[in-house]
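Morning run. Coffee first, then this:
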Amino acid sequence: MQMSEEIREWIKFALIIVALFLALRTYIVSQRQRKLDNSLKLIELFFNNLQEGDIASWCRLFINSSESSGASKGACLSDFGNEMQFSDLFSEGPDDGGALERIVEQIDLISYEILQETIDARIIYSQLGQLFSASYIWLQEGDLNFIPDHYPSFNKVINKYKTKFPKWPYKTYSHCE
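And here it is:
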């Protein structure tokens, strides 16, 4: 009699362990799905907050900042053929109509969410990686304190993922020859 009661208690204990495992697994999967949903919504919000032509302006900057275009490190060629620093694009009346500033502001907001771990950094980088990397390099080359002073979340994310980002695939917005 006592043996069957002891077996019954062990069976209850085993069922409780299985139930706890299933509950934990369900929680982990739902958190992963929530991060994915948040990431996709944030990518959509990123593009909705840009003005028409901002990505095209960024692509023009990407091409105009290449060595083949004649630009020196930390600078790009303006529409008039003059060389200008990227930090000049954050002043009043910028050559790109404020596109780079709007893009970097949105990247900083997204970076904050990455740091809070409410979104999946890999999903974000897959869609915005070239924008992240090139914009950071441009602004870092010109003024060493520009990014940390004005866009601290962006700076922290780049530093946190600097070994991972180069290994992750991303959408290409522009090529330069």
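The two ends are 84 Å apart (CA to CA). Good start to the day.
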